[in-house]
Specification:
alpha/beta, Alkaline Phosphatase, subunit A, eight-stranded mixed β-sheet, four-stranded antiparallel β-sheet, 17 strands
Length: 512
C-alpha cells in the first residue's frame, strides 16, 4: 500500500473523436478548457481503444482485458464473474467507489459493468436512478426513495433485456416512428451538468467518508453521441449554415430521428454539404461538453480536490461522420473510431508532462489505476502506463477487435442485404497498431495496411505495396489470437440464453 492513496477519476468522454483536441496536435477550436488542462498532463497521442463501441470498450477499461477474453461483444453479453472489475479491485483496496453515468448501455443494462460500485448514479432516465446506491444517509424517506429508484432501474433494465433478445422488437426500436418515444423516455444522453455537479460534490465534500478514505470516481458523458442538439450559441459558432437553410434543417431532423441510419453503411458518398453540417454539429456538441468539463475542473481546483487526484481522461471510442460511407460506430476499426484521446494528470509526478508518442492500448488504464492505488500485482504494475518506451512489456503494440452485435447484423441483412454483404457487416475484424504501421484484418483473408506516420487518415492501403510488412504484422495477429485463446480458456463468458445469439456466436467461432 502507498502511504496516501490518491483519489482516482476516470472521465470517459463517450464517442469523442481524437481530432477534436488541439492539445493532441489537431487544428480545432472545440476544446479550450481540455487543452488548458492538458498542459498539466501526460498526453498520449497514440492511444487506441480495444473496441469500437461502448459495451466491449467499457468492459476492457474495467477489466484490463481485450474483448476476445471478456466476451462482451453483444447487447446481451454478461461480464464473467471470474473477471474482477476495476471498481471491485479498488473497493477491496479501501476505496469508496462511485459512478456518475450517462450511458444506458453501461448504467442501465444489467450486464455486470456496475459490479463493484458502492454508488452508481444513472442520468439516462426520467429520474436519476441509483441501482447500486449505498446511501450515506439513513432516513426512512431516503430509504424509500432509493428503493423506488432501484425498482425503476430494474424495470428499465428488464424492458431493455426483452427488446435486446427479440429481433422484431429490436428492429422496431430503430424505426423513425419508435425512436422519439424511447429517446424521450430514456433521456438518451443523460444530464452531463448534473452528473458533473454530483461528482464534484462527492470529491470535494466527501460526506460520510473518513478524511483519508480515497475515492474512485467513474464519469461517463454522452454529449458528442448522436443525436445532435447543442445550444444555439454553439451551433451559431460551428454550424452557422444550419440557420436559414431548410434543406439542411430537414436533413438534420431526419438524421437525428433515424437510429437505423446510425448503424447502416451509406449507400453512396455523403453529400459535401451534409458532411460539413455533421462535422459542425458534432463540433458544437464537443464545445458544449468542453464548457461543462471546464467548469468541473474549476470547481475541483477551487475546492482543493484536484491536487489529490489522479485524473484520467479518455474516450471509449470515436465516431464516423460520413467518412468511408460510414456514420456512427458500428463496424469499422479505422482511426475515426479506435484512435482515442488519453490525458493523465498525476499530482505525484509519476507521469512526465508533455506528449507521449508511444503506441498504447487504453485497456491498460485498468493496470495504471491499480498501480497508482498501490494494489496492483507485479504483472499489473508492469502494464501501467508509467512503463513505456524500453520498459514497455507490450513493446508499443495495441490491438482492437470488432464484431457487429448480432441483432444489428440480422436487421441489416434483412433491410439491406446486398450492402451488408458488400461491407462485410457479418465479419469479425481485428487490428494491430505497431510502430508506424496499422494492419486491419476483416474476416479470414482481407487485409488493409496503413502507414499512420505519413497517412494518419488511412487513405492509402499499402497491403499490395508492402507484402513483407503485411506478413510481419499478420504474425503479430496470429500471436495475439493464440494468446487470447489461452486467456479465454481461463474464463467462462456468459451470454444471453437466446438460441439465436448462441448459434450465431458458434458460427463466428466464439463458442464451441
Amino acid at each position: 500500500m502507498v502511504d496516501r492513496q490518491p483519489d482516482i477519476v476516470l472521465l470517459v468522454l463517450d464517442t469523442r473523436r481524437v481530432d477534436r483536441f488541439a492539445c493532441l496536435g489537431y487544428p480545432t477550436r472545440t476544446s479550450p478548457n481540455l487543452d488548458a488542462f492538458a498542459s498539466e498532463c501526460a498526453r498520449f497521442r497514440r492511444a487506441f481503444a480495444p473496441a469500437q463501441w461502448s459495451i466491449p470498450a467499457h468492459a476492457s477499461l474495467f477489466t484490463g482485458e481485450y474483448p476476445s477474453v471478456h466476451g462482451m461483444f453483444q447487447t446481451t453479453s454478461l461480464l464473467p464473474t471470474s473477471l474482477p472489475t476495476l471498481a471491485e479491485r479498488l473497493g477491496e483496496g479501501g476505496y469508496f467507489t462511485a459512478a456518475f453515468c450517462n450511458n444506458p448501455l453501461v448504467g442501465v443494462v444489467n450486464n455486470g459493468l456496475r459490479r463493484g460500485f458502492r454508488s452508481f448514479l444513472n442520468y439516462v432516465g426520467l429520474i436519476t436512478t441509483h441501482p447500486n446506491q449505498a446511501s450515506l444517509r439513513s432516513s426512512l424517506l431516503d430509504k424509500y426513495r432509493q428503493w423506488f429508484k432501484r425498482k425503476f432501474a430494474e424495470f428499465v433494465s428488464s424492458v431493455q433485456g426483452v427488446v435486446a433478445n427479440s429481433e422484431k422488437l429490436t428492429e422496431l426500436s430503430f424505426t423513425p416512428l419508435f425512436f422519439p418515444v424511447w429517446q424521450a423516455a430514456l433521456g438518451l444522453k443523460g444530464n452531463s451538468r448534473r452528473s458533473l455537479d454530483d461528482a464534484a460534490r462527492l470529491l470535494i465534500e466527501r460526506r460520510g467518508l473518513s478524511s483519508r478514505q480515497p475515492i474512485f470516481c467513474f464519469i461517463n458523458l454522452m454529449d458528442t453521441h448522436m443525436p445532435y442538439h447543442a445550444p444555439r450559441r454553439f451551433v451559431e459558432q460551428f454550424a452557422p449554415q444550419f440557420f436559414g437553410d431548410r434543406d439542411l434543417q430537414s436533413y438534420l431532423r431526419r438524421f437525428n430521428s433515424d437510429a437505423f441510419g446510425w448503424l447502416a453503411p451509406l449507400e453512396d458518398e455523403i453529400a459535401p454539404a451534409h458532411k460539413a453540417l455533421l462535422d459542425g454539429m458534432y463540433d458544437a456538441q464537443a464545445a458544449w461538453q468542453d464548457e461543462l468539463v471546464g467548469a468541473f475542473f474549476d470547481r475541483l481546483r477551487i475546492g482543493g480536490a484536484l491536487d489529490r487526484t489522479l485524473f484520467i481522461i479518455t474516450a471509449d471510442h470515436g465516431e464516423h461522420l460520413g467518412e468511408r460511407q460510414l456514420v456512427g460506430h458500428t463496424i469499422s476499426l479505422y482511426n475515426e473510431l479506435i484512435h482515442v484521446p488519453l490525458l493523465i494528470r498525476d499530482p505525484h509526478g509519476r507521469f512526465a508532462l508533455g506528449n507521449v508518442d508511444h503506441v498504447v492500448s487504453s485497456r491498460r488504464l485498468f493496470h495504471t489505476a491499480l498501480a497508482a492505488a498501490g494494489v496492483a500485482s507485479a504483472a499489473e504494475r508492469a502494464l501501467a502506463l508509467t512503463n513505456i518506451g524500453d520498459a514497455d512489456p507490450e513493446q508499443g503494440e495495441a490491438f482492437s477487435e470488432a464484431i457487429l452485435p448480432l441483432n444489428v447484423q440480422h436487421m441489416l441483412m434483412r433491410r439491406k442485404p446486398e450492402l451488408a454483404r458488400r461491407r462485410g457487416t457479418d465479419q469479425r475484424r481485428v487490428a494491430v497498431c505497431r510502430g508506424r504501421y496499422k494492419l486491419i484484418q476483416t474476416g479470414a483473408d482481407r487485409f488493409e495496411l496503413y502507414d499512420l506516420a505519413n497517412d494518419p487518415g488511412e487513405i492509402t492501403d499499402l497491403s499490395d505495396a508492402l507484402p513483407a510488412q503485411v506478413r510481419a504484422m499478420r504474425e503479430r495477429l496470429r500471436a495475439f489470437a493464440t494468446q487470447q485463446s489461452g486467456r479465454q480458456a481461463m474464463e467462462q463468458t456468459a451470454v444471453s440464453d437466446d438460441p439465436l445469439v448462441l448459434n450465431r456466436l458458434r458460427d463466428l467461432g466464439y463458442l464451441e
